[in-house]
Inverse folding.
């Protein structure tokens, strides 16, 4: 049997490996597992949203296809929402609804690039981003990691990587895995570079609802944004709809038309029930979202304070949204070895930086959105004991 070598040789999904480190184990009440491996919120969807979806599942139309690009009301509502956040000038014709942000990224890449082309990614990268490029035979060019700059990439590094084969630069802000939130002027510089080089700037803003006090960029108000800028986004995190897989792409009309062709071939349309959930959330859950944003910000602030303590020798590189990127103190151990030992000895499940690319041997990712402040207090004590 012939199997596509690009798929065989692509990196393996790493979450399954991390879960294998605790497979079959039981954890006592005295020392429970603290799971910091995956970016999932600790709270369920709003009660009103759950009741709305229970009603929607009984309707005939919920089991039917929508327009390929998504429900017009949802596309219009999202456009209005984004225009308010970014002081923009998008319309529903600039919006396509996808089955999650991962699919939004995959659709966008297929619309822009083919085998043999190049895409610039930040280092460390989100592993699914690299996996998709490898499966398509597209080469990833990596911007070097800047731990001394809180994980914020330098546009000059990207400029040095652009060739005739380059089709796009990909950014993630707030970043996964580092949590770094890119200042608006940095994002604008990347935009200007992409515009000048006549390539696309793709920003994965899955966690844009958790910017904290950082101001958003305002690229959507620029006259030429449709020719250069593509935003991908997920409703899953903000409305706690991880299992519903609903995301979006905002781009110029020509790009959306190309992506719509791919969407029709791949999935026909995003699931109707997921779109209904997103539409309800945008229309009705602003107060609920504000409450959850405060919860996440409080956890983020606590994590930042935790690593300022001199009692532990793990160093905070960057922190934001759902993530903290940590430098471990063990020069002689790889990041994977440290993560496995933390799982075994400290009952803390986290991800090694090497899951997110080369040159990450000294780093760990903590995803704290599903950990309470009380649990993170235990993390401090366990890290101290582990190092001792």
């Amino acid at each position: 049997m012939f199997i596509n070598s690009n798929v065989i040789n692509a990196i393996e999904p790493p979450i399954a490996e991390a879960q294998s480190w605790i497979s079959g184990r039981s954890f006592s009440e005295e020392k429970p597992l603290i799971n910091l491996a995956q970016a999932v919120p600790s709270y369920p969807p709003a009660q009103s949203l759950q009741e709305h979806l229970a009603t929607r599942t009984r309707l005939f139309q919920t089991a039917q296809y929508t327009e390929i690009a998504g429900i017009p009301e949802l596309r219009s509502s999202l456009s209005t929402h984004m225009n308010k956040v970014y002081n923009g000038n998008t319309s529903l014709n600039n919006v396509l609804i996808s089955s999650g942000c991962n699919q939004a990224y995959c659709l966008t890449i297929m619309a822009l690039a083919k085998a043999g082309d190049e895409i610039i990614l930040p280092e460390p990268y989100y592993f699914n981003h690299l996996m998709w490029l490898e499966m398509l035979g597209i080469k990833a060019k990596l911007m070097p990691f800047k731990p001394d700059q809180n994980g914020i990439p330098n546009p000059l590094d990207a400029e040095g990587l652009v060739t005739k084969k380059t089709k796009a630069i990909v950014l993630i802000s707030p970043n996964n895995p580092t949590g770094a939130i890119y200042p608006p002027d940095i994002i604008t510089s990347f935009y200007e570079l992409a515009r000048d080089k006549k390539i696309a700037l793709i920003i994965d803003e899955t966690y844009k609802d958790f910017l904290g006090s950082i101001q958003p960029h305002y690229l959507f108000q620029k006259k030429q944004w449709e020719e250069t800028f593509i935003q991908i986004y997920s409703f899953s995190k903000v409305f706690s709809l991880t299992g519903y897989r609903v995301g979006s792409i905002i781009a110029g009309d020509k790009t959306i038309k190309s992506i719509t062709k791919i969407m029709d071939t791949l999935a026909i349309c995003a699931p109707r029930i997921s779109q209904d959930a997103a539409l309800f959330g945008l229309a009705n859950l602003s107060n609920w979202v504000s409450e959850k944003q405060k919860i996440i910000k409080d956890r983020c602030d606590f994590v930042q304070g935790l690593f300022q303590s001199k009692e532990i020798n793990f160093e905070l590189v960057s922190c934001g949204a759902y993530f903290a990127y940590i430098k471990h103190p063990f020069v002689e151990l790889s990041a994977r070895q440290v993560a496995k030992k933390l799982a075994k000895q400290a009952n803390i499940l986290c991800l090694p930086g090497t899951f997110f690319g080369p040159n990450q041997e000294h780093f760990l990712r903590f995803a704290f959105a599903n950990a309470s402040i009380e649990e993170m207090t235990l993390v401090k004590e366990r890290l101290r004991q582990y190092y001792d």
